[in-house]
Amino acid sequence: MAKSTRFVCAACGSVSSKWSGRCEACGEWNSISEEAPLTAGPGKQALGAGRGRTMPLTDLRTEETPPTRAISGMGELDRVLGGGLVPASAILVGGDPGIGKSTLLLQTASALARKGLKTIYVSGEEASAQVRMRAQRLGLSDAPVLLAAETALRDILTTLETEKPDLAIIDSVQTMWSDTVDSAPGSVSQVRAAAHELTTFAKRRGMSVILVGHVTKEGQIAGPRVVEHMVDTVLYFEGERGHQFRILRAVKNRFGPADEIGVFEMTGAGLAEVSNPSALFLTDRGEPAPGSAVFAGIEGTRPVLVELQALVAPTPHSQPRRTVVGWDSGRLAMILAVLEARCGIPFAGLDVYLNVAGGLRISEPAADLAVAAALLSAREDVALPAETVIFGEISLSGALRPAPQTENRLKEAQKLGFSSAIAPAGEKSGTTGGMALTRPADLAQFVAETFGAG
Ligand code: TYD
Ligand code: MG
User: Fold this and answer.
1) Residues 271 and 285 in one domain
2) Could you say which ligand is closest to the alpha carbon of residue 239?
3) Of the four listed, 57, 342, 354, 407, which is most buried by Cβ atoms within 10 Å?
């Protein structure tokens, strides 16, 4: 029987019978590649009644005790996992090459091994000697981690079968190679097969598995999206090049809150935890400078203060530039439009640059007002009042919407020495626990109060 090849989109995993330059399902360009079918077929029966075994059904009443989590002692990591590592869970850690995934996972493996978990670290990218050298540099040589340099999935599974570890770390899933799939390592079908084999094996044997996945330039874990669906938890390890800060972000977690972040700093001796990230993202704040605003944000369950920096200058080009780092460029365009339409402040003919200090990425709409404040401060060349944090969402009408967890944001600001805040909210204007609070009714009022003429 001739094998029918098929074409799979690396972005969304959809299957088609012919190649095309653009995936019809998700619209991604150049993401489709040829692959052999997963189960090549003679002798396979069609699915249908009477051909499988009847599965046992249960109800929802049975009491389940929550799993005992393994605490690594690395607080930033444990929190992102939702309070420690859940037994028999599958975790994917994605990130750019060189961002520090192997370092993070070697530290994780050592921490958990020292807590008594039998841990196997399988490197498909580095020789054992290299991993040992890194361990030496990190002062982890004495941690009871079992090490192997291997890419053959069959041998890895056999070893895991006999060794029965509590945790296996696979660095990386792109280097793994299954002899049941006849395409090259790193191809979509290999990545998917490896992830599938490892996660199902882990579930069956009550072992936890952490898969490392490289991310493509477009920010996707190379290989199909289905890898993300297979695992319980997806963490991204991110950071700006040239910054030593690294952020471990949960984008999916069946055992804890998504959007939680852990902050690390890459040092000469590995990753150090940063338990007070606000201090870090605020940089050295001397005299208040035009274009700088402090946003009191919430990342996951934790308040984080960040400095937003804007630069506004007359453009030499016919089309002014809009450059954003760490914030959504569509959202910036929206705020510029609202400032123009509702407050009569045009940005035509002006280049606009917006930067989130420290290499953090903000996605909260509550940053709107702080962004607007930074833009106006840069445009008017007027520094914002010192020791003031700003937050709140701007709607298209120019109205301001209160941000969730106002209390927590104010508390964090106060803890870091800020004495006042500008934030929308109904009830009262005045002081909240020592913080002077200004509550503008809408954007126009904010502009008038903060910058004089609107
Ligand atoms: P690595 O963990 O190998 O990245 P990944 O597995 O994501 O590709 O980290 C590589 C970078 O980290 C490398 O540029 C050197 C830097 N690094 C340090 O700065 N300090 C350290 O202690 C270690 C181990 C690495
Ligand atoms: Mg690596």
Assistant:
1) no
2) 1
3) 354
